[in-house]
Each structure stands twice: as C-alpha cells, then as structure tokens.
Amino acid sequence: MNVTLAQLLNKHFAGNDVTLPSNLLQELDMLLNEAAVAGPETNKDGREAGTPEELYHILWETLNLIGTEASPLIGDDETSHSIVNAADMLNAGCRNIVAAEQQTLRETVHLKTIQSVAKAGSWDVPATGDLSAVQNYWSDELFHLLGIDPSMTKITYEQYIALVHPEDRGFMMEEVSRAYAETGRYDTEYRIIRDGDIENPRTVREIAEVVRDELTGEPVSLIGVTIDITEIKRAERAIVEANTELRTLFNTMNEVFFSVNVEQDKMLQISPACMRLYGYDPETFIKDPYLWFTLIVDEDKKKVHESNLRLSLGENCQVEYRIRHRNGQIKWLLTRMRPTLNVAGKLIRIDGISSDITERKEAELALANSELKLRTLLENSNDAIVIINEDLDYTFATESIGRIIGYATEEFVGTSMLNYIHEEDRGFIAHSLLSLNTKPEEPLPFEVRFRAKDGHWVWLEGVATNHIKEAVIRGYIVNFRDVTDEIAYRRELEDANDKLKRTNTELDRFVYSVSHDLRAPLASILGLIEFTASETDDEDIKQNLSMMKDSIGKLDIFILDILDYSRNARLEVKRTPINFSDLLTDIRNSLKFISTGNSNVEIRINIEEDGTFCTDRSRIIIILNNLVSNAVRYFDPAKPAPYVEVTVVARADGALIGVRDNGIGIHKDYHPYIFNMFYRVSEKSKGSGLGLYLVKETVEKLNGDIQFTSTPGVGTEFKIYLPNP
Amino acid sequence: MDSNNFNFEKVMVVDDAEIDRFLAKKVLTKHAFAKEVLPQDSAMNALSYLSENQENKEALPDLIFLDINMPKMNGFDFLEEYKKLPESVKKKCIIVMLSSSLLPEDRELAMNNPYVCQFLNKPLTADKLKDVANP
C-alpha cells in the first residue's frame, strides 16, 4: 500500500512545478506504512511513537493539507479521488490500530483476572545485585498479595525482602543467588508478613526463571510467578491432621472397626481396639476369619446369624450380643454393620463397628431387675401405696389394694378418699393432713377405719408423707396395711393385760396378806412360848417350848422367803445409791430379832465404798440377808470363834461382795444343787430350801454373777459381782 | 431383869388380835414396864380414848404400841388421825410400831412418820422392851 501511495503521489505531482520536498514525501510514506500495519508491536524497536489517536490525527491533517494544496493545481477528479482513497485507507489502518489496542487491553484484563483468581502475581526484576534497584514489572495481584497499595508503583528489592518472614529470608535469598549462579530457576515456598501481622503469615510458592542476554549469557532479569498458597497449605495441613486424627481414632478408640470380604471370608481389617474388646490382636482375627463368631456366647449366636441374613438383603443392621473375652469375662457388644452388594445383588463386603456396652447393659439389666423387683414387691406386698392429691382424690394405687380393701385400681383411682373413711376418723384425717401441710417433712402415722368393697370396716395402719410440691407426685404418698386382725389382737391383748394387771395386784395383795396373816399368829405364838418359858422352871416344859419355838422359827423363815421370792419376781428393779454400811448394820440388827439368830457368831463387816454404786436396795437386802443368815445358821460349833465376814468393794463400775464364814461348809457333791429351788443339803437343814435359790434369782435379776467355794469343816465363801448400770 | 429401868405410867397397846393384847399385857406386867396397860382393840377406840382424855394428862398414855395391820383403820390411818390431836396429847405420847410385817416399805413408812420413834417386830420380848426403854 505504501508503494501505492508513493506511486500515487509521484504520479499525482509529476509534471507539476509544485514539487514536494522529497524528505516529506519519504516521511509520509513511512508514516502511512506504519499506520497500515500498526499494532501492539509498534514500538518494538524501542522508538517513541505516540498514541494511535495522535498518529491518526497527524496523518489526517497532512492529507487534508495535501488535498487542499493540490486541488487548485491538479484539480482533476482522478487525483482527488486518489487522495480520498488514500485517506480512507489510512482511516482503515488507524482503525486497525485501535482494534489491536483494544485487543491488548482485553488481554491485560484477562491476565489480571486470572492472576486475581489464582492469587498469583507475576513479576520481572532486573538482574542487578543492587538492593535498591526497583522492579521492572509487578502485576497488580502481586501488590495485592503483599498487601501493598499498587499505587506505590515502585518497590526495591530490599523493601521486598523486608516483607519476607524473618525465618525464611535466609533460604529465600539463597535460592535466588543459586538460580543466578547455577540452576537458572527456582521453585520454593516461604512466608510473607502482610501488614506486619507476624501471627498470620501468608505462605507463597514462587517459581522464577533467570533471563539471560542472548549474546553474553549474563543474567538480565529474573521473571517469576508468586502464588499465595496459604489456603492450600492450610487445607493440606487440615487434611494431614484429619488423617492423623482418624488414624489415632482408628487405633485408640474403644470401638472396633472392621471390614470383611464376604466372598473370600476374609477379615480385611480390624482396628487394634479388638485387643481390649476381645483380648486378641488384629493379626489373630485376620488369620482366623471365624474367630469373631466363635467368641460369641452360644445363646446369642442365632441373633448374630439373623443379622447376617439381613445384611445379605442389603439392609444396615445393628445387633447386641455377648462375647467371651479371652480372659473369660463376658462382654456385651453393640455391632453396627453396613453391607456392600455387587451389581448382582450379592453381599461382598461388610463394614462395621463394635462397641463395648457391657456397662450400659449391666446397668440396664440391673435397672430392669430392680424395677421388676420393685414391682413384684409392690404387687405382692401386704402393704399398699396410694397417692392422694390436694382434693383428696386418689391418683394412684398399687394393685395390692385389691387384697386389702377389695377394689381394683381402675375403680379406685379418681374417687375421693372421704368416701371410704369412717366418719369418726374423718376429723382425725383432716386434722392430720393439715398438719402435714404445715410440716411437710414429717411423716404422719395413722390408724383409720376404711370401708372395704364388701362393706365391712378394715383397720388400716400406715404413714402419709407430703409430696405436693414434687411434680411427679403432686400429692400425699400414703402407704398402709390391714391391721384389723392386729387391732383385734391388740384389743384382746390389752384386755388380757388389764386382767393380768388386776390379777397381779390381787396376787400381790394376796401374798402380802397371806404372809402377814400367817406371820401374825406365828409371832403371837412365839411371844407366848417365850413368855411361858420365862414363867416356868420345869426343864421338860422348857425343852418342849424350845422345840416349838424352833419349829415356828422355820415356818417364819419359810414365809419370809416366799414373800421375798414373790417380791423379786414381781417388782421392777428400782435403783438407788446404796450405802452398804447402813444396810449391813440394819441386817445385823434385824438378824438379832429373827428368831434363829445365833449370838455366838461374830459378824465382821469390811466396807470400801464411795457412794457411787447404785442398785435395788430391797434386792440387795434379800441377797445379804440370806447369805449372812445362812452363815450364822450353819456355824460350826466345833470352832472356838465362829464368824461370818462380809466384804464389800463398791464403786461406780460395780460392786464385789464377799460373804465368807468358817461354818460347817458344804460337801462338793452338793455344790451343783445348792441354788436349786427347795433344795436342802440335809435333813439337818433348818431353812426352807428357798434361800440360795432366791439369792441366785435376785443376783440374776440385777444382771450380776455369783460364785462360791466351800469345804466341809473349813467354811464357805460366796462371791458376788453386781454391775452398776 | 431390873424393873427399875422402866418408869412408864401408862402404856397403850393398840392391836386387833386379842392374843397379842393378852401377850403384851403379860410381858409388860411381868417386866414391870408400865404401871398400867391400856389395851385397845381398834385404832378407832384408841383415838376416841385419846380424844376424850386430851385434857386429862393423867389418863393419857406415855407410850403407845401400835399394830399396823388392823381392820377398818390400820396403824397408818391411825397416825393420820393422831396428827389432828392437840399438841398436849402428841407431846405426852411416844409411839412405837409393833408389827409382824417385815416389809421394808412398812418400816420405812413408819419411820418417816414424825410421831413414830421406833419400829419393832412381833413378838414383844424382854430384849425388845429394853431397846424401847434405852433406845
């Protein structure tokens, strides 16, 4: 085209004295030429060219100028036509330039978008060792990546290095220098600190290549791509962590994971938890594919087998069963399984997880057992439990009410308590419930008459507690039982007791009056005998009277013993502090008056007491009286100085009483019997045979202990211990 | 036995049993315990006598032997009524319980009574009389 234009121009101006300067022509020609092929490569040779709009404008002006100047000279149509054509062509050429420019613009936008999406920045830096050198080219995305405003268009290498994480700077710079020196490229990862936030560095991958001069081979620049891989890294790390966690779980979870290849009857994998669950390691399970089934307790094998059938139908299933651990322990397992079927619908693989549910199962069983137990207890108990709400309606009743009052729970629940209570007891019940409301924590015992279904009255005895405030109960819990028989029995017992008490009192009076009425005449006779004896000097009469006196004395002692026996058996133990000194003085004095007293026997008394010992005074008198009078009665006439020695040590922790004599003693053959009722050692015995029996009974009544030693011709010693209660 | 030890003018014996009144009289007389014995067969009669003679010091006994177990009014009932008699009577009379009862309760009850100075068990003997005269 440029040729065409030159020819056109030459032809146009040929034969004309108006000649165009040749350099102008040449320049025009060149401009046109360039305009025609204008594109992004315009300034490939490095020459400054201005914008296409400027170029186009210059050309247009030029042509117009030519046209205007030429027309008066040339004037013919052909010439002007040619110029117009040339202008059109120029115009078209310029349009090409604009289109090419727009294309470039589109590509730039495209590149930017790609970089932004990829979070990849590209760059081009001069290959100088100078740290303060600025970069040749940095894509916007790179700025963005570094968190720098792209308007800060130039950045030095030094500034860039400052953005790299301090720990990564060393090897990053090493990579660069190695690329220059040897490898010509590098591909590395390092961290970048954005906005000074060292806690959250961005990780980047950088791939760069050294551009060398074609002739010298010297590095000219370094071109590279920097990609933000922070998210990728994070994702990678997350995957690794998740994987580790999964692995850890697989290895450490209490649940056993397993996969079975059904076609080949092969355990593909089983997690190490099987060691805990079964006591066998995974290898053993893999070696013996039927081991898991063998370990199931026989009763549960069927259940597991059934679940296998369901699996083969492609259904997920779970089953609870027991296995025998290698150590013999029975464990409950819950196994959840998922089948995999092949295209033909055949089961090829099972994946499952088994967990140890022994504890839960045992708790469940225990609960079920205790529930069953409780229910059985409630239903079979003679006690009934009901709940009464605030309106005094029954809201709950155990089945056992049937046995007690004859109602079924269905007909009973919902009715009012007042329908059944005996009217004489209603006041008591109302009063009681009121007091339950004021003192909710106190259980209330009651005894009421209740109308049973068959119409008769049943005595109920029980306890009510206030649970109005408890959401589950909302009422009074009342438990009761039928005490009709007991009450009847108790009535009888009370009556019998009253009768007995009366009888006892009568007996008491009887014993008293008998003893008195028997004793009184005896005393009178005794008095008369003594008086008569003192009135006569006839020895025969005196002897007769003496024998009568002995006989009456015996009878008197017998009466006294019976009186004591009755008193000991009947009277309550009444404890008071005991003064043994006074007590023994009294006993000694009274012995003088009891007819059989022998004044030849010395009564020695040793007492050690601090006044803290308590017991029943009248009983201790019975004991001491009998022992001392026995000792006096059975003194040994062969001994020059007959005596009875009473030793008492009485303190707060008890009393030790010793009664020792040098009397005739008791042969050891009789020892086992001396405490027996009405036992007398020989016909010479003067007593009733009640004395020692009475002593033993009395000592036992006081929770004490009695022991004795006796040797004929030497004497007898009784030792008594009495506790201080 | 030295009769001079006894210097009671009048001694009353309250006992429902004739034999005991008889015996008491015999013993008291024999040992010259008192110049005069006043037997009373019941507590009521004894009280009447004391009441009637409350102004007559000569007629009042120096000592009363009192039985416990008597019909209608026993010894303790007597003591309750005796309490109501004027001081003149109570000052003159010494009361000694004379009973065949060996019940500690009876002895205790008697000894707790301010008008009773002694408790004796029947039968009445010379030794016991000595105890009464020289307590």
From TrEMBL, chain A:
Q: What is its EC number?
A: 2.7.13.3
Q: Which PROSITE patterns match?
A: HIS_KIN, PAC, PAS
- Occurrences of domain PAS (ranges): 242-316, 370-426
Query: Which reaction equations make up its catalytic activity?
Result: ATP + protein L-histidine = ADP + protein N-phospho-L-histidine
Alphabetic keyword roster: Kinase, Phosphoprotein, Transferase
Kindly give the Pfam families that the UniProt entry links to this protein.
HATPase_c, HisKA, PAS_3
Recall the GO molecular function terms of this protein's record: phosphorelay sensor kinase activity
What is the name of the protein in this document? histidine kinase
TrEMBL record, chain B:
InterPro entries noted in UniProt: CheY-like_superfamily, Sig_transdc_resp-reg_receiver, TCS_response_regulator
- Coiled-coil annotation reads none
Q: Which UniProt keywords apply?
A: Phosphoprotein
Q: Which one GO biological process term can you cite for this protein?
A: phosphorelay signal transduction system
Q: Which PROSITE patterns match?
A: RESPONSE_REGULATORY (PS50110)
* UniProt xrefs under SMART domains: REC
Q: Which residues carry this modification: 4-aspartylphosphate?
A: 67
Record flagged with keyword Phosphoprotein: yes
What residue stretches are annotated with the Response regulatory domain? 10-135
Q: What is this protein called?
A: CheY chemotaxis protein or a CheY-like REC (Receiver) domain
Which species does this protein come from?
A: Chitinophaga filiformis (Myxococcus filiformis)
